[in-house]
Write a structure and sequence with these properties.
By secondary structure, the chain is an alpha+beta fold. Helices cover 37% and strands 20% of the residues. Helix 8 crosses helix 11 and helix 10 packs across helix 11.
Amino acid sequence: MEALTNLRGLDKIIVPIRLSSKSKIKFQCYPGVPCFKLCCSNLFLPLTPYDIIRIRDKLGLSTDEFLLLYTEPFILPKSGLPIVRLKMSDNEDKTCPFLGDGGCEIYEVRPLACRYYPLGFGLFRNRDKRTNEEIYYLVKEGFCQGLESGPEITVEEYRKSQGIPELEKPIKEWAEIIMKKESLGPIEVPEKSLQLFFMVSSNPDRFRSFVFESKFLDIFEVPEKTLEEIKKDDLKLLQFGFKWLKTVLFGENLIKRRKVVSSVKKIKPF
């Protein structure tokens, strides 16, 4: 199979064309493609909170074990918010730690960013319409021979084929937090706020302990039904955490506060 792009080797470009869910693309990747697995090296691969839960459970690890073995913290460039990314193997090619001879060894729970490839994705705030709009773009790499091959499909058809919509839904509010911070520009963020965002974004076990073992419930009113749900359901805990972050970081009244006593220091919003 001949290369279908005019890029060479590790050349990489982002095609400066905004795509919509109805835009059509051609792409296929399978073990028979000569470049199979070449895109699984030296990655800058952010993990969503839901990615962390799914991969952790697949590996049978605690959250702390997974984070220590397979991730490293990094700062999102536009928002300045801290999240985690997948840590590459310590070998010459800096391969993904889950890359085996036959391909991805955690394919069924592979990260959202992997599922999107070769598409890029972002949220755009339309201030006139006061809505969040999804935007897509194409990433081309010189070695990739899957581009422009296979049947023509829409961006939305490709997203569905990769199981993307059901993985995006649980983290919609998380993405909105990041986008809202980006829209505020380069303002200084209190260290405590960054720590809280990182905790909710990366470690549900520690966030659960924070809720039930700190003064959290002295400050916030949480219905008993919600408390029972977040004690045992990590996905429910995520949804609760995102609403709480919006409350404390942006002043949104999503989690009701109790009357704060003088001994409790109120968190300063962004």
